[in-house]
Amino acid sequence: MVRKVPTQNSSHLRETTPHGNALFPLMLYDVSPDPSFEERIGCHWHEEVEFLVITKGEALAHLGGEVWPVQENTICIIPSNHLHLLTCELGRRLDFFAVVFHLDFLRGMGNDIVQKKYMDTWLSGTAACHVINPVAAWERQLLECLCGIREAFGAKEYAYELFIKIRLLEALHLLVTNTAHGQHAAEQACDHRTVTVKAMMEYLRKNYANDISLVQLEKEFGLSRGHICRLFKSITNMTPFSYLNYYRINQSVDLLEHSDDEISVVATQSGFNNISYYNRTFRKYMHMTPSEFRRRCQEQE
């Protein structure tokens, strides 16, 4: 299968892939990403909560504007609406599993005290990201909960959905009773930075086919060029123009796959005014030329 740039969706930073269904809004993913890409999870966000556990290797987790080194058994807690990505040294193996679920799965009937005090915080995105290297008893218990969910999801024995729901509630209880409180100001600051970067990304996506400069971003967002670059990279691990090229290549992949336009036309439609620069950038992300990519698509068809 021809490989696309490793991103959650070629059109939106917000992930739109359904995780489970309305009756069971949960999905578990066992992942061994392609080691020829530094990004093992492309930068994205979603309404669902995500519990991600490293099962092999070492990486950097970029969560809510912070960067943490992660290794085997590290647990990443990613509440609703938080930007996140995972990077790893080229050529290094990295395996992990992720439990992605909507909090509707855990809610009771009506606006009860459990929902008001605990669930709404997680769904609103005001809860903080956490990275846990299990040492304390409760942390090891949390890891056991998540590994139990993984095993039950894979086996799918009778009443596995009930088992998973119980374990998720147990995991949430462990987090609520053991993670630090009083971080509201720090969370607000982080949230403000994330909102700003999301707005920048939306601007870049809407205008990707046009020429975009730092001067334009400076005028659009009222921030200095240096601050824009630092802020953007702190959240996404990319400069604004690295992200723009990343997005443009995704757009060109769709055009190469689903149109018969000349490669020079595809480059222009994707925002590249220089065909040589487009070819170099495409090779950087796809490890092949646009012509090779199109030929492989045609061979597969």
What does this structure look like?
By secondary structure, this protein is of the alpha+beta class. It is 47% helix and 16% strand. The chain has ten helices and nine strands. A five-stranded antiparallel beta sheet has the order 1-8-3-6-9, with helices on one face. It has a four-stranded antiparallel beta sheet with strand order 2-7-4-5, covered by helices on one side. Helix 2 runs antiparallel to helix 3 (160-178) and helix 4 (184-206) crosses helix 7 (240-258). The longest helix is centred in the middle third of the chain and has 23 residues, at 184-206. The chain is globular.
Q: Could you estimate the helical fraction of the residues in percent?
A: 40-55%
Tell me the major beta sheet: 5 strands, antiparallel
Alpha carbon gyration radius: 21 Å
What form results from the Cα inertia axes? Answer: globular
- The tally of strands reads 9
Order of helices and strands: EEEEEEEEHEHHHHHHHHH
Quickly count the helices: 10
Quaternary organisation:
single chain
The rounded distance between the terminal residues' Cα atoms is 11 Å
Mean pLDDT level: 83
**Low-confidence parts, pLDDT < 50 over ≥5 residues?**
1-13, 181-189
Placed side by side, the strands forming the largest sheet appear as 1-8-3-6-9
Q: Which structural category fits the helices and strands?
A: alpha+beta
Beta-strand fraction estimate: 15-25%
